## 1
Amino acid sequence: MDWGQIFNQSASSIISTTTIAYALAALGLGVHFGQAGLLNMGVAGFMAVGAYGYAISILTFGFPWWLAAIVALLAAVVFAMILGVPTLRLRGDYLAIVTIAAAEVLRLLLLTVAFEEVTGSADGLYGYSGDFQAANPIPDGEYGFGPWQFNQNELWPIVIGIVLLALAVLLVWAMMRSPWGRVLRGIREDEDAVRALGKNVFAYKMQALIIGGVIIAAGGIVYTLGSNASPGVYVTSLTFFVYTIVLLGGAATVFGPVLGAVRHPGQQEGDDLCQVTPRPSPDRRRWSRGRRRPASTSVRPPLAARRSTRSSSPTTCAAPSAACTPSTWTTWRSLGARSPRSSVPTVPARRPSSTC
């Protein structure tokens, strides 16, 4: 195991578009789950809306990259309203059921061949970064030190991601310190009490769902800046990864999700180091190839052998005793048989002596 390589890859993943995308998604989920108490299980769906909204706007409609990003964020607003209108008036788990189902339906729509010309089906979308890289103001060369070394094409999306993350953190921090944020935390604790004070709980929940969804979609956009848009990325496990980040950093905090994204061990750059396939034991390899079982495994002998053993033995015994002879006990032990009166395999504590 090369610990130097593990350290370098872990350190380099701290500053990457993947980490920034996770941080944005966790920050948006923190608004949903940590501040408003909304159990959103469709984080992968919001990220897919941002990623594919950005890619489709460039490839299909020919928008510039900055306008495509705005269109993707507006698509996240529409997606949040579609999910929120029928569910936010209900309690608890209904939003979780609707969001996780909507995210999976959206992924299947991206996989279907009916819209292959637009979504790319299972192959995804690629080749949309030309306009974005053309707007790169960073001169050619290598930048950074140690494990954090990037060329101009790698550094440009990281800079954009850090700027978006800083703006999102500043926005959430200011909103949570405002009266709006205090009402939102009151809804999380006891929405009936807030409703009794004359506040429109549904409107506040919808605003929180839209704002958090836009931030999550921004994470999807940043993710596609460093890679292609592929439907295999936006699966249900991505939602649980983001929940892990939020819980690691602190659900009801502003800066906690960002720190959780840095600490999260499941980032893609480090996944290959954690996927270790155990080598099967020699006995298991022989068993898997159709050979005989290992000698240590107790196997019930055939019926004919058991009958011959019973006929040759005047007394049935499960352990060495005065009523059994050494030959009978050796026969039972060599065959690995079970006692007729017990379902437990016979394992003697010691080899019997020549005189029972």
## 2
Amino acid sequence: MSAQDAAAEIGYSTVENKYRIHGRVQGVGLRSMIKETAALVGLSGTVRNSPDGTVELIVRGPESVVDDFILWLDRNPGHSRVDKIEHVAWALPALSPAPQGAPEPFQIVYSNGPAVDTLVAGMYLVRSLIGL
């Protein structure tokens, strides 16, 4: 039984929220940590680097689990430095029903392919380390 199914059985609601994570968050392994930890606690969604140096996170699961996940993320996991987690208002696509059964696996989305994303993230890391 997935975390989402268990939550539904005891009356907890499933949410799908979008966040923008600010700070030293690219080039430090944060997306991989997010993916692994989300899968561990039964959340689904996507994470991607944004061109502005932030990380965009869409996460779906029981509200209390999502809230705890965001609290974990705010504690600067790994080598990241999370300055701010912005909850972004957004509308769910009209043809996107809540999944039944096991959640889809959490995914890292590569906007320009893994090599380009890694290069861009590395540039942001170097800039943040030298104070630009």
## 3
Amino acid sequence: MNQPEISVEPMVQRLLERLLAPFRDARPRDSLLYSTNHLWFGDFGLDDDCRIGIDDMLRLILSHLHEIIFPVKGHKVPRGSPLAWLCQPTGMVALPAPFPMTVNEINTTVRESPNLALADPYGEGWLANIHLDHRATDLPLLSCSAADAHWKESVTAIDATLHRTLSERSDKSVGETLPDGGRFITSISQLLSPEDYVNLLQDVLRVAG
């Protein structure tokens, strides 16, 4: 994959390569379908009921969740409206519904332990059981191969955003540790200002079309 042409210091380039390696290594599961804003859909039942959760791209960007705010059972969520609110130390960001849906059930375990959605997103960390308001076959859900191509595009976009943001930083203080020289940088959120991080998240979560 070609690197963006925006130049950064060699130490910063090595740091970005390390942080983005898990993104590049991630692969979708062929038993699931995916949305372009990084939700997975699985365990389809009758009447287009299914289970949803966050995929690996979103899991890797979200460094920590101290709360997930869900709608009430039976709530109808229009396309593009918040299916949930993801609360992090840097602020709160909406997780938009990629299609119209109705909430059948919330994972109460994740409500009580929100970081389970990051630690085990395809297992105990699922988000909700929902009813799709349109037939799943009529929706632009991504197959495993299509999701894999979309994930690669997402990594390229994230990489370009990080290069651009860090190349514009005036203090040039980015290295393997935070500027105070102590804590080792382990996530993208540590590289960006809260505003830049939320903007990146919103770009990743944006509903296509």
## 4
Amino acid sequence: MKTKEELLDILLSNHNYIRKICFIKNFPENYNELIKINFPDYFSFSQKVYHYVHNDPQLKLGICKQCGRRCSYRSFNDGYQLFCSIQCRNKNIDTVSIFKETYKKKSQEEKDSIHKKQSLAHINKSNEEKNKIIQKIKKTKKEKYGDENYNNRTLMKITKKEKYGDENYHNVEKYKQSIKNRTKEEKEQTRLKKQNSWNTKSNEEKQIIINKIQSTLFNHFDGKWNFQTKEFKEQSKITCLQKYGVKYNTQSKDIQNKTKLTHILNFRNNHPETFNISDLEVYNLYYKEISNKSFETRKNNKTTSSSKCENELILWLNNMNITFFHNYNKDSRYPYHVDFYLPEYDLFIEIQGNWTHGFHPFNILSKDDINILNIWKEKSKTSNYYKTAINVWTNTDVIKRNTAKKNNLNYLEIFSININDIIIEIKKRINI
């Protein structure tokens, strides 16, 4: 019969012995001793062995420090959780003091990151959970101040006056930076939250809000709406001049072209059989300028990153002494940024490994492709990433492909990120 210390070392080094059959076969005497302990029915065999080798027949291990209930069993190596729930952990005096000390030592960036995560966690809560929190806050304010919507504006103004020298101070730059730091998902969640909040209101509630806004604006500005004031109009002209070089945004060629493109794409998606505008016209109308502008910006900021497979392909091409250009767009026959151009073979190569390229060319006559597109459209209602994927697969890739066909280019699309597959496809095309 093994001692409990010896048995613990064996079990930690080989977890197979923790299985009931193996344990009985290899340690029968220890097993006979183990079954004498009165374990609850819901205990797993691993759990029973854990208490046995730690000499705990009274089952004192695994008891919550805060409330005394049984905690969750994790594994033979890790044992039990220290607390039975998050609530107990957060109520424990020792844990709270550790949290406070740890938080004090964190930098401002780490603290901001924590606040950001907590804000996102609140956004991800269901409407029922949010309503419970709101109702609890209102109840507390009602009991404490007699007004469920109470805000101590007087104290807020005093604090701002003392801290910033202006009782109406607003940290605009910090707000702008906060907006800038948000991810696309966070921005989309905020937008949907506002949209859903408005859509769930009755017409009467909406009218009350509109009347209140109008009343506030009327008290602050000359007209009923702020954009009717001279100050707003002048500021709008200044902004447009700085941003677009014209007084009104509708005078901007970029916006005019974007508007035209939107109408064209909507028409093409809804009436593909009668669409008679060439893909190159669509590209020249908008995509070319935006694409080049985006690439130059990333180039200047040194953020033109390459995928892993592209970096591996660069190494292979160098080892094979094959001349190539990466992210090439100097050929009028193909006025886009092609992933690789091999001048010796006059070969244009596009690595379409990302899922946004659909894993194969889009075919508007294919039922399977239309089904996939419909699924993506449904997901795009809550995800900008799927909106981008739809545009890439059904618009930009199609435009590039048709341009290559029209100009009889030696054009190769590779729908893979596996470097071996990529090399095989290139070898086939250049006959090496």
